Each structure stands twice: as structure tokens, then as C-alpha cells.
């Protein structure tokens, strides 16, 4: 196991079924990728799956593009198919970190049904709380590596050489939905559709709130503590 992970042995004993919930730009993707790697389980980001499908110009990717560019939700049948395939994959047997799904009550209910069929239970839902103001500042400056998907920020975590990924030398780009008009739509969609899931999962007793305004190390510690079960807080 990589250093810096919770060392209570829980990763070895039981499967981790984690859902990362929160507005766009809350830091979910960064933390989900790190945690998944350290726990040796897949990071299942529906946004990444859709962007990958688009990069390959598959019919799914091309259909999804029009919604993604506007910051709207992609039709549910597409998402359901993507998630179902991933959850049934043998690579997901020891657990997963879901990032970007479910995104509304319809998806959450279908997800609960799917988990019942697969005889799985959610271990914890980590809810990243961040203000709209921070979201706008973070997303507008965000750049991503085309090759390895590592995230950067022009102001907060710039790459060593402009436009080049420190990790793999890939080209950095700005997501087409990280422009102001799409960011505003994404925030509205989050408030209307996704935010009700906070109560949904709080009532189910699996919610842990994370203060996403802290600097990245603080968020990392809060995530590890919530996953280890050391200090889950109903948010
Ligand atoms: P993300 O990378 O999570 O910010 O997702 C980027 C875009 O992909 C979103 O704005 C949606 O258009 C689409 N998307 C990702 N996940 C979902 C989902 N669970 N349901 C519907 N659309 C999604």
C-alpha cells in the first residue's frame, strides 16, 4: 500500500464502496483519483467516461457532447449503461470510488436498485462542501492533461512549464464546459438536481461532510478520516 493512506487495515478487510458528492470544482476528482490509487480500487468518474467516449468519437460520446458543452446532464440511459458496465467489471470486485454519479434522485434510486442486484452496499458518501464563488474561481483556472488527466490550476497549482503536464509531458487543455456560461449552468443544475441527494444520503445514515474550502492537504486528511470511519460527521 502506498504511504499516506489510512493504515487501519480496512482496505484489506472489506470492499470500499464510496460515492463522492458535491458541486463541480469541489475537488472530488482530485481526491477520488488519489484515494482510488492508494486503496487499489477503480476511480469511476462518469464525466471521465463520457470524455473518453468523446475522444474516441463513439456514438455515446458524440451524443453526450452537446449536453456536456452546455453544462447540462446527459440523458440517463447513457449514464446507466456506463455505470452498470463498470460496476459489473471484475476490476470493481474490491470496491470503487464513484465520482459524478448519482447526480439526481432518479439516478440515486436506480443506483440503489442496481446495488441491490449486485449485493453491494454504499460504505460512505463523502459530501464536499464548497461555495459558488470558490467553484467559479477554481473551474475558470482549471487545466487538465490530455494524456493522463492530471488536474492543474493556473493560479493555485500551475505546471512547471506552461501548458505541459509535470507528470507525463502531455498537453494541458481547458475543458469546454469550464467556461463561464457553462459553469453557471452546471452550478444551477447542481443546486436543482444534485443537492437534494445530500439529504437523501444523510437520511440513509451514510453521509460524511468534508470542508472542501480547505487547502488540498486538509481536504486529503478529512477524506482519509471519513473513509477510515474515524470521524464521519453527518453534514
Ligand atoms: P464532471 O466531469 O463530473 O463535471 O461531468 C462533466 C459533464 O458530464 C456534466 O456536466 C454532464 O454533462 C455529464 N455528466 C457526468 N456525469 C453525469 C451523470 N451522472 N448524469 C448526467 N450527466 C453527467
CATH topology of the domain at 10-42 and 89-132 and 188-227: Rossmann fold
Task: Tell me the helix content.
Answer: 40-55%
Cα-based radius of gyration, to the nearest Å: 17 Å
Secondary structure tally, helices: 10
Structural class by secondary-structure content: alpha/beta
Average pLDDT: 91
CATH class descriptor of the domain at 10-42 and 89-132 and 188-227: Alpha Beta
Largest sheet: spatial strand order: 2-3-1-4-8
Question: What ligands does this structure carry?
Answer: adenosine monophosphate
* Major beta-sheet overview: 5 strands, parallel
Q: Give the termini separation.
A: 30 Å
Level-2 CATH architecture of the domain at 10-42 and 89-132 and 188-227: 3-Layer(aba) Sandwich
Indicate the proportion of strand residues. 5-15%
**CATH-wise, what's the superfamily of the domain at 10-42 and 89-132 and 188-227?**
P-loop containing nucleotide triphosphate hydrolases
Low-confidence stretches are: 1-12, 230-235
Shape: globular
Question: What does this entry look like structurally?
Answer:
It is a single chain. By secondary structure, this protein is of the alpha/beta class. The chain has a domain of 117 residues: 3-Layer(aba) Sandwich (Rossmann fold), CATH 3.40.50.300. Helix content is 47%, strand content 14%. It is built from ten helices and eight strands. A hairpin with a 5-residue loop joins β5 and β6. The longest helix has 15 residues. The N terminus and C terminus are likely disordered. The site of adenosine monophosphate has 17 residues, from α3 and α4.
Amino acid at each position: 500500500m502506498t504511504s499516506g493512506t489510512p493504515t487501519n487495515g480496512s482496505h484489506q478487510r472489506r470492499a470500499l464502496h464510496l460515492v463522492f458528492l458535491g458541486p463541480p470544482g469541489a475537488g472530488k476528482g482530485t481526491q477520488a483519483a488519489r484515494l482510488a490509487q492508494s486503496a487499489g480500487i477503480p476511480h469511476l468518474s462518469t464525466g471521465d467516461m463520457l470524455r473518453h467516449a468523446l475522444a474516441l468519437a463513439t456514438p455515446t460520446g458524440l451524443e453526450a457532447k452537446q449536453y456536456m458543452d452546455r453544462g447540462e446532464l446527459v440523458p440517463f440511459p447513457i449514464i446507466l449503461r456506463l455505470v452498470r458496465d463498470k460496476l459489473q467489471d471484475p476490476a470493481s470486485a474490491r470496491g470503487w470510488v464513484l465520482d459524478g454519479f448519482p447526480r439526481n434522485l432518479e439516478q440515486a434510486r436506480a443506483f440503489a436498485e442496481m446495488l441491490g442486484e449486485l449485493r453491494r452496499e454504499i460504505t460512505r458518501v463523502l459530501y464536499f462542501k464548497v461555495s459558488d464563488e470558490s467553484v467559479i474561481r477554481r473551474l475558470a483556472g482549471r487545466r487538465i492533461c490530455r494524456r493522463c488527466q492530471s488536474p492543474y490550476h493556473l493560479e493555485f497549482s500551475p505546471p512547471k512549464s506552461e501548458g505541459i503536464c509535470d507528470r507525463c509531458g502531455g498537453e494541458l487543455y481547458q475543458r469546454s464546459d469550464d467556461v463561464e456560461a457553462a459553469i453557471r449552468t452546471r452550478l444551477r443544475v447542481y443546486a436543482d438536481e444534485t443537492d437534494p441527494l445530500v439529504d437523501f444520503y444523510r437520511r440513509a445514515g451514510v453521509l460524511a461532510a468534508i470542508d472542501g474550502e480547505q487547502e488540498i492537504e486538509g481536504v486529503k486528511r478529512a477524506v482519509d478520516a471519513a473513509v477510515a470511519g474515524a470521524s464521519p460527521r453527518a453534514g
